[in-house]
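Field reference: sequence -> structure
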Amino acid sequence: MTDQNQGMNVSDRISGSTAEEIVGSIRALIHDGSLKAGDTLPPYRALAERLGVNRNTAMTAYRLLVQVNIAESRGRAGTVIADPYQEFAEEGFARDSVLLDVGDGNPAPELLPDPSEVTLERVTPTLYGEPTIDPGLAQWATRWIEEHQDRPFRLTVTAGAVDAIERLLSQALTRGDQVALEDPCFLTSISTMHQNGFQPVPVAMDSEGMEPESLREALEAGVRAVVCTPRAHNPTGVSLTPERAAQLREVLADYPQVMVIEDDHFALLATAEYSTIISPERERWALVRSMSKALGPDMRIAFVASDATTAERLAARISGGITWVSHLLQRITHAMLSSSDAMQQIHEASAHYAARNAAFVAELREAGFASPSHDGLNIWVDTGASAKAVLAALMTRGWIARDGAAFALAGDHERCLRFTVHELSDSEMRRLVGDLAESSQEAAANETKSGSLSRR
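Structure field:
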């Protein structure tokens, strides 16, 4: 971070005796181009010592920069100047490609119930000031959630799980607050953190879900909320075991003030049993269940079961006259969930995803690849080589997958790929695994060759 024009280190040009002055100085260096996106600011202790100010002053300045998205806090990696035009990876098909996309993360269209086949009763207009939740849908969702959460709760309906989680965090946290997330992490959660000014704190995962000690470290670091996927985690396909859920509840018990959010996005389709990290004593909590995987991404409906205080705050944000979920969409959703034909199709879709994913994992195992995936739409694979190099080699063989690095918060996922394979035939799966094996070997050989050349 050296300014060639001035012949001095840019960090030495940061000035100020108050937090506001330090922020103004750093903003000026950004505006004149001396500091650029990706540049690391000096540790706040070192800056405080050089400026002759209290450490809390420098720390407050950095916190202010983070809160207005001028900088990002990356834990041990320091505070880094943010890119205001940064784009985040999204789910969906690769654009403008003739290659076979096996990384899109979509449900199978032919397995989604057809909303035109359900019959609606006479639809009366809903006006401003009326209840935001359709009574029939509320009854259905309440009975369903009561099967798994036997504690009292209030129900809210939001425009999908992403909308629910963003609203839950926004009503409980302020910009700059820390949130514990699984690492690797759902793509949209990463985007939500940055867009709202929250600081993601990574929690490592294994084949049973969040690792208890890693969660404890995040809690000790001061996180204000924890977002956990109890089953069919995206991207890994991992579900919490009952034993792991109990361990996580035990860790969380020492931090009663933290809000716990469960994103049970695959609830209608999951084959794994629901194991919760929300203890009966937890004061602030929410369970989110989305319809997007079972009924389709365009069905922007999610149910939020939560404590009364959280529900009241959510309701205040939704009932302002413009942000409720359309009652017409709610009634279509209720009609589909009440249809025996539609529910039978959902059960068949669940069995299909489970069977196709199991077949692919078996092919991977036969070829020597490890995968922890059990449930959901996606398969997570450690390729044993640079994922970027493996992806490039796969593209020459006609495939597009997802780079594991896109899902990373802090962990080393640069050798992993995510696949969505439930629409492939058996022969296509075998061909993909064969091409993956060749691509991984090719990438590993190139790494070895590059390493040998660099040592000469």
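Note: The chain has three domains: 2-81, 100-107+342-454, 125-338.
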